[in-house]
């Protein structure tokens, strides 16, 4: 449908540009932090308390500290500036990039397509997600499977760390997997896997119950997307600070 013949880019008088700008700055800062930590290649493991940052889990190459490689060192040491997270990051990034919420967020914030409701976009043509490369957004369900597997590994790491006692790091690792779990469960694909393609909910009470519960979480998908993304960075920062000796872990039970 053609846009109404309005000369002005928008008739909105509120600060419609603030949400996309905030999103842009937030995603940029997190991307810079994540890139720095990925390529730092250090301070991802606290040997004393067995804290492993989720950004390096699973650690699968020969340069991983052996104790941090909970699932073995499957790959040889990576060349040049490459570090162990480059093996898992494509899956984590793929999951977030193809997420229904993040798509809305960066289409608005980074591509101005459109920047906000009732604000014209600068692009003259709209092809939606039917052509390459955006058709790849349909891979979201497969990234969901991969991210779920990585989440299980993060849960395993968090539980394993309790073997040395209980400290603030344990609580943070636990809170991190709880938030990541809530975000993953609230995924639209997860909701569809639980209750999609059914003609009669009444004939599938268990799936209907799961769909109902996931739908409640799904209502908070945006909040969970941000909370889990920020918290995973804070978890990583805490592990890095303890691993580098900058701060000591607050211990409750030794
Ligand atoms: Fe956001 Fe699946 S829709 S994670």
From TrEMBL:
Q: Which UniProt keywords apply?
A: Membrane, Transmembrane, Transmembrane helix
In terms of superkingdom, the source organism counts as: Bacteria
Segments spanning the bilayer are 16-36, 81-102, 142-162, 168-187, 224-247
Q: What is this protein called?
A: Succinate dehydrogenase / fumarate reductase membrane anchor subunit
Instruction: Give the species this sequence originates from.
Output: Lentzea miocenica
